[in-house]
UniProtKB/TrEMBL annotation:
The organism's place on the tree of life at top rank: Eukaryota
Limits of the Cupin type-1 domain: 1-103
Signal peptide extent: none
Protein name, per record: Cupin type-1 domain-containing protein
Gene3D superfamilies cross-referenced by the UniProt entry: Jelly Rolls
Length: 119
């Protein structure tokens, strides 16, 4: 699974080359806030600029997606990195917790893709 993230200045379009995937998009200005699409070979999807989204593998083979962006340089902000951008004090105040109650969340760019684990 690709960690939930958004591209603040870039729209994303994808073409599924191989595999089955589920794409979920948070549409902030829609009455249907969460839009989930089941994707398979030859499907095309579009994620508007700054819409949070994530994609997960739903099958037994690796999902291969050809990505297109409307900008030459693509930036993304993941939920994990945005969480870690704030001090523990700010997060504690925001969530009404004592800062000692917050979990330690290590950030590692290698963790942007989360392996599927079936219970």
């Amino acid at each position: 699974m690709r960690e939930p993230h958004w591209h603040p200045e870039t729209a994303e379009m994808g073409y599924v080359i191989d595999g089955d995937a589920r794409l979920t998009i948070l549409a902030p200005y829609s009455s249907h806030r969460l839009n989930t699409l089941e994707l398979k070979n030859d499907d095309v999807y579009f994620v508007p600029r700054a819409y949070p989204h994530y994609i997960g593998n739903m099958g037994d083979v690796e999902v291969k997606i050809l990505l297109f962006f409307d900008q030459a340089i693509v930036y993304d902000i993941s939920y994990q990195s945005s969480f870690l951008a704030y001090s523990r004090e700010v997060l504690a105040a925001s969530f009404k917790y004592d800062s000692t109650q917050l979990p330690n969340v290590p950030f590692n760019r290698q963790n942007l893709f989360i392996k599927r684990v079936n219970p």
